[in-house]
């Protein structure tokens, strides 16, 4: 069970002078988790998860203006083992919210995952997933 891969969407954002890092995730069958090839599109599971997270983020806008806290890497989709998700992700999240260095947290996060994408959209284009560079 510890090797079960998880697909996780994360949003690095700022609101009312505070940082937040909401996330959404779901387990993936090992057979669909991919081989770590970053160019492999996460498919409908990735689109659904990004939409779920973005709807939750949009609902937060009732509490004040939202801002991307990490530029183009503010919305990420990653695949990581359950063990890293349970042991390392909460620590990284807490460190970043408490004022940790964004670049360092992103680098540490990237070292934990087997696949990572930034989520982007351009006018008149569908949502796209671009491989996030290795650490």
Secondary structure layout:
Layout: E1 5-11, E2 13-15, E3 18-20, E4 23-27, H1 43-60, E5 66-68, E6 75-81, H2 82-87, H3 89-97, H4 102-112, E7 115-120, E8 128-131
Antiparallel strand pairs: 1-4, 1-6, 2-3, 2-5, 6-7, 7-8
Helix pairs in contact: 3-4
Q: Tell me the distance between the termini.
A: 26 Å
- Written as H for each helix and E for each strand, in order along the chain, the element string is EEEEHEEHHHEE
Number of helices: 4
- Let me know the average pLDDT: 89
The largest beta-sheet arranges its strands as 4-1-6-7-8
Q: Which percent bin holds the helix content?
A: 25-40%
Rounded to the nearest angstrom, the radius of gyration is 14 Å
Largest sheet: 5 strands, antiparallel
Beta content comes to 25-35%
Q: What number of domains?
A: 1
Quaternary arrangement of the chains shown? single chain
Give the uncertain stretches in residue-range form: none
Class of secondary structure makeup: alpha+beta
What's the total count of β strands?
Answer: 8
Q: What characteristic shape results from the CA principal axes?
A: globular
């Amino acid at each position: 069970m510890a090797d079960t891969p998880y697909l996780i969407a994360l949003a690095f954002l700022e609101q009312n002078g505070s940082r937040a890092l909401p996330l959404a995730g779901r387990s993936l069958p090992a057979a669909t988790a991919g081989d770590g090839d970053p160019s492999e599109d996460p498919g409908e599971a990735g689109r659904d998860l990004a939409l779920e997270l973005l709807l939750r983020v949009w609902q937060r806008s009732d509490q004040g203006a939202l801002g991307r806290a990490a530029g183009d890497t503010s919305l990420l989709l990653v695949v990581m083992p359950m063990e890293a998700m349970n042991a390392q992700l909460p620590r990284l999240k807490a460190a970043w919210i408490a004022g940790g260095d964004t670049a360092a947290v992103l680098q540490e996060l990237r070292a934990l995952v087997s696949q990572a994408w930034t989520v982007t959209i351009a006018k008149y284009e569908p949502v796209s997933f671009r491989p996030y560079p290795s650490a």
